[in-house]
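Hi team,

Filling in the usual template for the complex we talked about on Friday. All components are listed, including any nucleic acid strands or ligand strings, so the model treats them as one assembly.

SUBMITTER: L.P.
PURPOSE: interface mapping
COMPONENTS: two
RESIDUES: 648
SEQUENCES:
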Amino acid sequence: MTDKRLALTLGPLQFNWSAEAFYDFYARIADEAPVDKVVIGELVCSKRSPFYEDRLPAAIERLQRAGKSVALGSLALVTLDRERRAARELLTESGMEVEINDLSLMNYVDEQSAFSIGPLVNTYNEGTLAFLAKKGARSICLPPELPFASVEALAAAGLQAGVGVEVWAYGRTPLAMSGRCYHARAHGLTKDSCKLVCEKDLDGLTVRTLEGKDFLAINGVQTLSHNYCNLIGSLDRLAKAGVTSLRLSPHSGDFVAIVQNFAGVLAGDIEPEQALAAMRASAPEAEFSDGFLFRECGAAPLAPA
Amino acid sequence: MTHQTHSQAHPQAGLAAPLELICPAGTPAAFRVAVEAGAHSVYCGFADETNARNFPGLNFSREEMAEAVRFAHRRGAKTFIAINTFPRAGEFWRWSKAVDDAVRANADAVILADLGLLEDASRRHPNLRLHLSVQAAAANADAINFYARNFGVKRVVLPRVLSVQEIAAINRQTEVETEVFIFGGLCVMAEGRCSLSSYATGKSPNMNGACSPASHVEYKEEGDKLVSRLGGFAIDVVSAGEPAPYPTLCKGCFEAGDHTGHVFEDPSSLDAASLIPQLAAAGVRALKIEGRQRSRAYTEAVVRSFRTAVDAHAAGQPIPASDLRKLTEGQQTTSGAYRKTWR
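RESULT (copied from the run log):
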């Protein structure tokens, strides 16, 4: 690595947005957001893909023409034969880099494969990192629950193995995948009869305790944190540890502003405190956290400004 | 590829193999009870964070493990040692050494989840039989075949997200033996891919072998209510005087939109005894009982009941009605994802 600046990666959209909203979001990212890489494609539920698939090629082209490196994200929990086929085709027929989010795709990786490893793959230690690097992974986004000590050890191992190490730096944190659809369940439906009710919640549906405290968020078969991971105050420490890129996970609202704040701090144009205040203004509903990395648990909020 | 030599699970080669019954043991006493009650195999772990039931007072010292394996072997039963958490960066050796200790204890197999540990074990112990833990959440034939090709994995414990039809499809597409959970606590999430506990308490199933740990539980009477909390979050609220449910995060009562209730899963436990014939027809090789943390009496009753069921099935007889309801702490039971409507 010659360039020591942390790169910015836009993770795959976790939520079920309309085809219009999906395309408009990526068009705006292409035109205005200073990210280096974009991972695009359905992460959470294969029932969503048919509704925006035909807009995907145009979105990819637009991103590439804007100079972004684009990778196709694979589905996180693959159980059906059609899902296996679709995942395999990404790797063997797309001609693009693929982000592997379910290890079943590793069965088809060969010397020609261009792939990276997503945050839903369990890369917890140097042994696993070295194995994936040896298989040809270009970069590895670490699981969001890792504490900073693990991030430091893995970033060092990544430098040695010649593989980039990415950290989940912004957005509701993915916590669990299930065979069951919680959106459907909350609406008295089942996964097979879900009527795609998850489309109503652009950033997931907040789960509150019976005492009214915000706790989690459901997103189809996925469960997320209620809080938004936000590591804007820790970019120096991450860079010093040898982390090579930051993952920003899409949300509704002015997401370009979020990206610009990260880019601004990395470029030294604005102070982290200033950026945090600006992000609090542009995403007022978000409670920010750096809990998994730096505090006693993932739910712990950022220290007050 | 590794070429492993291991004894056949069932000596009467050529006959349709009866289902193998895999039973939990959290203590040496429970281990002996499980073997005597008819377990074909027992699974257990060392008393540290290398296994996914790292609870205070539970599990085996190295000496106890070696003694348990000897006890099982004298009675024709096998021992599988679970080393199924994900090694912590910087301390990989701790998990690697646990595998060495399992070999030294003469275990019949180790149950692993982590890619790095699987590679390490397959390279350094080419004759060691490797089972893929449910914590690896290998939910389709591609994933399973990947582990078989790279590490010589012989058996996979399937995640509890699959229907019987999907299990049958997997068995048509892999040579790897499949083992499924038949009874006990039910994870509603894909195992090994859940950090809910870590989010609320900082203690993680993947890293610490602990889910919703007792150290972070609090029961508090507030007026006429009794609140069960985990990491400060109310997981359930009942009327004072009612028995307070243990606040296992995914079994809690919450609000989501207009819905109030068990957002993720009812406080039910898995009982798929009635599905034994279908699971056997789907090509499943072994049935696993959850509950290394449970009492000896529980282990004995459940193992005996399921051994009777497995023997009945092998003899072509109907599965006898289960009397295990009383062991599930008055909870309702479910056949979970095995039936598609659960989703």
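MY TAKE: The two ends of chain B are 37 Å apart (CA to CA). Chain B touches chain A through 69 residues (CB under 8 Å).

Thanks, L.
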